[in-house]
Design brief:
Order of helices and strands: EHEHHEEHHEEHHHEHH
Number of helices: 10
Strand content: 5-15%
Distance between the termini: 11 Å
Strand order of the largest sheet: 2-5-1-6-7
Largest sheet: 5 strands, parallel
CATH superfamily of the largest domain: P-loop containing nucleotide triphosphate hydrolases
Length: about 200
């Protein structure tokens, strides 16, 4: 089974690309969704201990946690030490399930794939990318997003040009969705000819 890492900076179109993989019958693990689930469950008490006052009714209040982290960016490492092992455990279960189901390919959608070094756990890296003006316009349309918050988020992410350089495949999402999907279709066809060994090396 080939393991594909799907990544890209904020506002670049990861979710749209992930949806296309799913439409083609390829399972996708959504790391952000896994974090949401952990925030509402077993990670909440650990985060409350580390960041007092950031939970309510047993769940992490993402707005409060985000505010605490933006005030003290160095604390991101403390949060990641709590969350990353739990996400990795969920990824392992997902990949084991896909292997048992006989899947030829599985996708890990991870926003900070390259920043955290998780690219070593996959066979191929697909990066979604768009022009800076389009990225900014997309992000600033999001609820409760400000330019300052956007800049702080972007400062934690590897520069887009570096991500493109480290990718096996780049999908340009600056234009129409149909054009991006055509690029993805070509990439998937190519990936289906690849032989992967990341599962045997890291996940089984």
């Amino acid at each position: 089974m080939l393991i594909v890492g799907l990544t890209g900076s904020i506002g670049m179109g990861k979710s749209t690309a992930a949806s296309y993989f799913r439409d083609q019958g390829i399972a996708v693990f959504d790391a952000d969704a896994a974090v949401h689930e952990l925030y509402a469950g077993r990670a909440a008490p650990l985060i409350e201990d580390a960041f007092p006052g950031t939970t309510a009714e047993g769940k992490v209040d993402r707005h409060l946690l985000s505010g605490a982290l933006l005030k003290n960016p160095a604390d991101f490492a403390k949060l990641e030490a709590i969350i990353h092992p739990m996400v990795r455990e969920a990824e392992r279960q997902f990949l084991q399930d896909q292997m048992e189901a006989g899947a030829k390919m599985a996708v890990l959608e991870i926003p900070l794939l390259l920043e955290t070094g998780a690219d070593k756990f996959v066979d191929a890296v697909v990066v979604v990318s768009a022009r800076p003006d389009i990225q900014e316009a997309r992000v600033l349309e999001r609820p409760n997003m400000t330019r300052d918050k956007f800049e702080k988020i972007r400062s934690r992410q590897m520069h887009d040009s570096e991500k493109r350089n480290r990718a096996d495949f780049v999908v340009d999402t600056s234009e129409s969705i149909s054009k991006s999907q055509a690029e993805l279709a070509s990439i998937i066809s190519e990936l289906l000819t690849w032989q992967g060994d990341a599962y045997q090396r890291y996940w089984q």
